[in-house]
Request: fold
Amino acid sequence: MFKISEFAKISQVSVKTLRYYDQVHLLKPAHTDKFSGYRYYTADQMFQLNRILAYKELGFSLDQIRQMMSEQIPLEQIRGMFRIKQSEIQSILDKEQARLNLIKDRLYAIENEGKSLPSHDVILKKVEPQLVLSYRKRTPFNKIPELFQQLDDHLGRSGQSSLSRMVLWHGCEECDDNMDVEVARLISQDFQTVPPFTVKQLPEIPLMATLIHHCRTTCRCTASVELALWIERNGYRIKENEPRREICVRRESPDDPDSYVAELQIAVEKA
Reply:
C-alpha cells in the first residue's frame, strides 16, 4: 500500500485533490488509520483514478463521474451520459464556429473597404424584367449561404437550370440583426413551385444606378454607402418600394465560396 503522498506522486495528482475525492466519496482510500488518520491507497486504485481524470477531461462533473464509477449503473445509462455530453460539446463548437465566421467576415470587410470601385465608375442603365426563383426570409447575414443552398436544392429537384445568383435587400425598420432578405436565382422559364419558394418576375427598372464591387454573402459591405453618396451628389433619389438588388457576377476565390464580385443595383429617379 502507498501513503497518500506516495500515491499522489506516482499518479501525478495533488494530495489536496485526493483528500477532496475522499470527502466527496469519489475515491476512498483503501485504508485509513483510525489513530493517525493517514490515508493509504493500493496500486489497483490508480486505474480508478485514471478513469476519474479521463472523465473529468471530457467535461463531466464530479457527480456525473461518481454515477459512472458506480458498479450499479447500467452500461446503457453511461452511453446515454456520453451522448448528452457529446451533444453539449457539439453545441458549443457550433456556437464558437459561428463566432469565428463573424470574425472572419469582419476582417474581410475591414481589409476590403477600399476595394470597391470609386464613385465615377457608377453606371446608370435600364434593367429589363427578370424571371427569378426566390426565397424570402428574415435572417442574419451569415445565414444567407444556407438560404442559397436550400434554394439550389429545390431548383435541382425541380430539374430546372438557372443563371446568376441574386440577393434582394428589402427595407426592414424593426429587423435589427435579422435582415429582410430574398435570395434568388435568375431562371429562363416559368415552372410550378411550392412555398416558401416563389417564381416571379422582377419588374423593369427604367433607371438603375449600378456599381461593381467585392463582397461576401455573409457580411455587410461599404458599396451601398458609396452608391448612395453618388446618388445624392448627382441629383438623383432612390425610388421607393424597390428592393436593392445585388447580382453575383463571379466567385472571387475558389477557396472562399462566399466571396464574390457583384453588381449592386439601386433603382433611382431624378430628384
